[in-house]
Amino acid sequence: MDLNEIDNLIRASRVDVATKRLLKEIKSKKATIEVYRRAIEIASSQQNIKEVVRLYKSAMMAFPSNPDLKNQYLQFCLQKEVYDEAIKFLAKLLKHNPNNVDAELALADCYIKTGQAQKSTIILNKLNENGYAREETYRLLGDAYVELDKPDEAFESFKQAVKQFKPTINTVASFLNHCDRTNRQKEIAELISDLDEEIIKAPGVLFHLAAFYSREKEFDKAEACYKDFFQHRPTVSAQAYTKAIYEHGFLLDKMGKYQDAIVAFQTANDFAFQMYGQDAELTTIETVELLKKLKVEGESSFKAPVFVIGFLRSGTTLVDQVLSTNKTVQVFEETPVLGKVFINNLKSIRKGRILSRKKMQKAFFDYYKKDYGWTGDRLLIDRSAPNMIYLNFIREIFPEAKIVILNRHPLDIILSCYMQFFVPSSLTRDFMKLNEIAKVFNHVMADVPLRAKEDTTLTIKYEDLVSDFENTTKELFSFLDLEWSDKTSEFYKVALEKKQIQTASYHQVVQPLYNNSLNRWKNYDLLLSPYYETLRGITEKLGYQI
User: Fold this and answer.
1) Which residues does residue 329 pair with via DSSP β-bridges, in sequence order?
2) pTM of this structure
3) Cβ contact 330:270 at 8 Å
4) What is the dihedral of CA 21, 27, 29, 30, to 10 degrees?
5) CB 464: neighbour CB atoms within 10 A?
6) In this structure, are residues 386 and 424 in contact, taking their beta carbons and an 8 Å threshold?
7) How far apart (Å, rounded) are the C-alpha atoms in residues 227 and 218?
8) Nearest to 121 by CA among 137, 103, 101, 98
């Protein structure tokens, strides 16, 4: 085959013709390795991952002794996150060469990234025991334990990687991130003192150092770290860069530089929307409206759980930590269980079919048992702010369930949502533009009082929780028939002992109560004043004033 002719077709934008000729040559079993390479290049440029995988497999069968093909295929799978194919390929390599340590490390990494971290720990511990310990084995072991929600084991693994070997930037960044998520401030300070200049100036390290200095109120040092970080823009991912802009905005807010903070949050939200703002299959407002048509019949067959809900950034995480001081309950934070039950029944809901209450209750508890280890011996509390949009869904599935609704000044909520870097989801796409946040808030909260049932609903103001903690939490515990104790007032100590906190508020809930975030909206009049009239009605309805 004349590859020059293929190249001319590609330059002439006749890629389809070039592809057909290449594939015809491959099918004829006469193709050279260069023919395969051209076909792979075209499929890669078109982001046709499945076709690239197929072509690589075909090429490796045609040229089984070519090591470059194998290495390129593995790198492609890892770079494009085709981890299932990478796992199959690595398993074959190890079958022929069981002592290939690099392949075992790559396999362990793939297991971590595909939710099979337990398999990863078996590989990595075996390598360490057999004398193949490296910085990478301990770092990956730390990553695996993080996924398994074993923070202490993860900490020890990262520590071994840093102390026994000359650590790489990736290892230091992973260790700092873990210390950050598990509130090990002292350990961060100790690690910083041992780092050399090259590592300190790396963007992944600078980000965590900035966060550390910010919490330690060393604002000048934090500002210097962010300044250095932003100089690395071409080398960091869009998501990491955007998250850093959000965090820098919070630093500016702490420093009282509110106009500069506005610019930071506007920039961060614009970047976030460009990354994943268009991905929603069903918007928040569409979900709320769809659930108004929900039809459910049948008796309840399970003991109802408790739901703690509220609009995003309303204080549900604080209530979570308060309730976790009682050992008779098991609080699950920010799980997608209710959303999964909803999505699984979406077609039926759209068609107006009557759903079985018993089946949906069973599906709900099955998810918690299978995916989250709920054993049924303690009261299940589902704490997830996004579930506010599912209030009608909760009422229909569990009509007797007790629901705790958190309210907060609407302008503080809207501002806090705008200032927050959320994990990408169909819900959070609505929280990157201030006008959209205000619109969604008005719609979601409009008829909440009408959907509340006095005997099974308790509404708490976040402001009351902060200003009158003891009386408010006693009312909460009484409503749920739980015993209040002195430990309740020291919830932040319990939070420090808890496994990693999976919420955007994880730094706040491990501190004693503070009122810095109350009425923060008053510092942002220029940003929020266009929405005062739009929100006045719902604000007054919820018992607040503008």
Assistant:
1) 379
2) 0.78
3) no
4) -10
5) 15
6) no
7) 15
8) 137
- Of 49, 21, 48, 47, which is closest to residue 35 (Cα–Cα)? 21
Residue type, 294: L
Tokens of 364: 């709900």
Instruction: Please classify residue 110 by burial: count the beta carbons closer than 10 Å to its beta carbon, then call 0-12 exposed, 13-18 middle and 19+ buried.
Output: buried
Task: Break the chain down into helix, strand, coil percent, rounded to 5.
Answer: 65, 5, 30
CB atoms within 10 A of CB 424: 15
d(CA 183, CA 501): 10
- Residues paired with residue 310 on neighbouring β-strands, in sequence order: 406
Give the single-character DSSP code of 460. E
Which residues on adjacent β-strands are paired with residue 381?
306, 331
Nearest Cα neighbor of 285 from 104, 436, 63, 477 is: 436
The answer to whether 144 and 128 are in contact (CB under 8 A) is no
* pLDDT tens by residue, the chain, 546 residues: 788 888 888 899 999 999 999 999 999 988 999 999 999 999 999 999 999 999 999 999 999 999 999 999 999 999 999 999 999 999 999 999 998 999 999 999 999 999 999 999 999 999 999 999 999 999 999 999 999 989 999 999 999 999 999 889 999 999 999 998 888 889 999 988 888 888 999 999 999 999 999 999 999 999 999 999 999 998 998 889 999 999 999 999 999 999 999 999 999 999 888 876 555 567 888 899 999 889 999 999 899 999 999 999 999 999 999 999 999 999 999 899 999 999 999 999 999 999 999 999 999 999 999 989 899 999 999 999 889 999 999 999 999 999 999 999 999 999 999 999 887 666 677 788 899 999 999 999 988 876 667 789 999 999 999 999 999 999 999 999 999 998 888 887 765 555 445 444 445 544 556 566 789 999 999 999 999 999 999 999 999 999
Distance CA 136, CA 128 (A): 11
Backbone angles phi, psi at 250, to 5 degrees: -65, -40
Question: Distance of CA 168 to CAs 117, 204, 321, 517, Å?
Answer: 22, 11, 35, 38
Q: Is the dihedral of CA 339, 342, 347, 352 positive or negative?
A: negative
Amino acid (1-letter code) at residue 166: K
Q: How many CB atoms lie within 10 A of CB 390?
A: 22
* Contact predicate 177/191, CB 8 Å: no
DSSP code for 481: T
